[in-house]
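Here is an idea for our session: we take a single protein and study its fold together. Once you have written the record down, we can walk along the chain together.
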Amino acid sequence: MRRREFIRLAGGAAAWPLAVRAQRPALPRIGSIVPFAVENTEAFGQGLREAGYVDGQNIVLDTRYHHDSLERIDEFARELVALKCSVILVGGPYAIRAVMKATSTIPIIGIDLESDPVANGWVKSLARPGGNFTGLFLDIPELSGKQIELLKNVVPTITSLAVLWDATVASLQFRATETAARSLGIKLEPFPIRNEEEIEDAVEHAAHDRVHGMIVLTSPLIYNQRSQIADIALKQHLPTISLFNTYPKIGGLMAYGPNLPSLFKRAASYVDRILSGANPGELPIERPTKFELVINLKTAKALGLVVPGQLQQLADELIE
């Protein structure tokens, strides 16, 4: 063989592995849109690892943090769709709406405590969602009465309650809470908010109206401002209860609701099934099945309240 031909063949052999590498199929891309990097995203990552998925090895994780900017949510939704993600995880009603608007083909997994997916037209039914959407949603009506009863255990004299709620997304929650309060003979005073700037005035007005406590409903806005709400409520000597189990850990009095990180971890199983070939429209919408009661005894003492021993025994966590 001539030397020139050998060099040409050798060069072709050296280039061959590079060509093969270039032709390897891209790893599945898992997109997600969430407000901040908190325990929820960590739980989702843990769920993926337990299912056998490792970022950079057999999947690519592409997480976008919108920090409560609705404009960024829409922008991120379009970006993840343009990147041709294999599946997109979204937390909260704003992100769900944005991604569903951006794509009708890429599988979407939603986690939402505020919305009714059937009433919103996102799915045909809980058992068979149809389309490209599925996820985990809270059934709020069954929790509203329980929250009032728990707060009444600590404040037996309750006859009136304030409700702090996000008027942009939480009308379903508010109506359920209103119905539950009426059935228990409790007067309800609504304090709707639409942005962070309205929170302080709402909580202070509730305290000045001399209500006996306040129910803090959920939304991405309220979740991100839960520390502020807890601080103002304590300063105003106002007993509160929330769905977020992290709320008492930052100074709120009580919480009764689902473990939010566990929902994000559970969402990883949806990713696994979809990447294995399942149709998202045939994966049933799930409801949380486990609810946690968390009580901050230090806050109760600061409010001059005594938490009954029986209620303490029922609590999943006591903060002292």
User: Anything to note?
Assistant: Residues 29-138+260-282 form a domain with the Rossmann fold fold (CATH 3.40.50.2300). The two ends are 85 Å apart (CA to CA). The first helix runs from residue 3 to 22.
